[in-house]
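User: Last request for today: this protein with adenosine-5'-diphosphate, please.
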Amino acid sequence: MAKADNIIDLDDVRFAYPAQQDLTLNIKHLSLAAGERVFLYGPSGSGKSTLLSVIAAILKPDAGSVQVNGTDVHALNGAASDQFRADNIGLVFQQFNLLPFMSVVDNVTLPCRFSSTRRDAVLSSASTLRAEAERLLTAMQLPEALFKSRKSIQLSVGQQQRVAVARALIGQPPLLIADEPTSSLDTQARVAFLELLFAELDRSQSGLLFVSHDESLKSLFDRSISLAEINHATA
Ligand code: ADP
Ligand code: MG
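Assistant: Here's the final one, the structure of the complex with adenosine-5'-diphosphate:
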């Protein structure tokens, strides 16, 4: 697949939740260059999670276009949309959404079951999916004793977060989207965690759209965007 110059190009997007008159999103333009690390901030309720869902084609906008890696994600049908997301986007949700009774390593390799693109990317440099999952978990400083023996339900929130980020990174998708993944950490721990994530992004060259309300993290990123400045919501 040819690589687009921008990993995200969003134009004239309007979005209202069903049965609501008011627009939660009304954004003229937003783009991210390939490999760029962008910090998106705004108060609770300002539409950050809604915007990420529109970019990931989980929610369909009422108007406008969203291109990810050069593809109009809302022009794809359900199955093609799911496949495109699995191939191109590593998602870190606020609540992590790990499969609780699956092992830590199986949680991390999960995207490779849905995406042969990501599986092939892993196997071009690692001997097995497990080996790459263990490398990523180690890079995220999860102690080996934990990922060898535990199911995800037996991990602390901070540990689950490391697993969720390893899962998003596996197979080097061109875009990572993270929705306040550090909200349970104090600022010092957030910075340390971001440094681990950035070291992996140096390897994978993935772009990152990172959402938080903690503006002290801004300076670590290539660029920061205030959602209030670009979003002319009426809600
Ligand atoms: P943020 O992530 O910035 O806290 P959200 O995108 O979650 O903000 O929410 C933006 C607005 O949309 C809020 O007013 C919220 O109440 C509303 N909202 C979020 N999810 C839904 C939903 N499923 N149905 C209706 N309104 C929603
Ligand atoms: Mg949110």
